[in-house]
Amino acid sequence: MIQRHSPARIEEMRAVGAFVGSVLSALESAAKPGVSLVELDALAHDMIRQAGATSCYIDYHPSFGGSPFGKVLCTSVNDAALHGLPYDYDLQSGDLLSLDFAVNLGGWVADSAVSLIVGTPATAEDQRLIDVCEEALEAGIAAAVAGNRLGDISHAIGAVAKAHGFEVNTDFGGHGVGRTMHENPSIPNDGMPGQGPKLQPGMVFAIEPWLMHTTSEIFTDTDGWTLRSIDGSRAAHVEHTVVVTKDGPLVLTAR
């Protein structure tokens, strides 16, 4: 079942959405050559403590994870697409970095991700990859309209990716979010329009396109968490927490 939340509850969710957005903005500013992934995680951890929030990641241990995650931030660099476990790596100019962050604040969860190029871009193709992910995210958000079907969100994301020549992996994608980080439904990044449950006001989704340059296949790194492209090509990942309302989509994690 897909949870629906009252307007009063949606108002309560605004605080966690704004907080998640502010943390990612701070991390974007901090992600410079020479800064380590562990330092970025520590910055996020400090902001969580100061806000009185709770990390959704640190004790997270799903069936696909090798152990409890142990950090508060996903830091995926270059060929790492998702679930990048922070380690003692100093960012280099030209790295393609994706940051994924989710917390509970006041009993509600918000989840968001951003991709950026550290320092000077190594290639224009990296920025194009990010731009296509962001375009796909915007299309998915635009489809999160009351009266549409869940498949319309998936189809909108996949259509943008494929129009730009990218393959789409549907093993990991968006999801419901509310009291916990992962709720029903699953929202793959490609699908058939007009299929699935009807979208209704009060539904809250984390919509999250991710793409790799030249493949749709991934493997799990030896750290038990980081998902990397099978061919070593770079990846990008973007995400927002979005509410379906009678007046259109509301992005809670806007930066």
Summarize the topology.
Blueprint: H1 7-30, H2 37-51, E1 54-55, E2 74-77, E3 80-82, E4 96-105, E5 108-117, H3 124-142, H4 150-163, E6 174-176, E7 183-187, E8 204-207, E9 210-212, E10 218-220, E11 227-229, E12 235-237, E13 240-245, E14 248-251
Antiparallel strand pairs: 1-4, 2-4, 3-11, 4-5, 6-7, 6-8, 8-13, 9-12, 10-11, 13-14
Please, what is the CATH homologous superfamily?
A: Creatinase/methionine aminopeptidase superfamily
Q: What characterizes the major β-sheet? A: 5 strands, antiparallel
Large-scale geometry:
globular
What number of structural domains do the residues give?
1
Q: What is the rounded Rg? A: 17 Å
Number of helices, where a helix is a run of at least 4 consecutive DSSP H or I residues: 4
Assigned CATH class: Alpha Beta
End-to-end distance, in Å?
Answer: 30 Å
Number of strands: 14
Short recap of the structure:
With 255 residues, this protein is an alpha+beta fold.
Structure notes:
It is a single chain. With 255 residues, this protein is an alpha+beta fold. It has one domain: Creatinase/methionine aminopeptidase superfamily (Creatine Amidinohydrolase, Alpha-Beta Complex). Helix content is 28%, strand content 25%. It has four helices and 14 strands. It has a five-stranded antiparallel β-sheet.
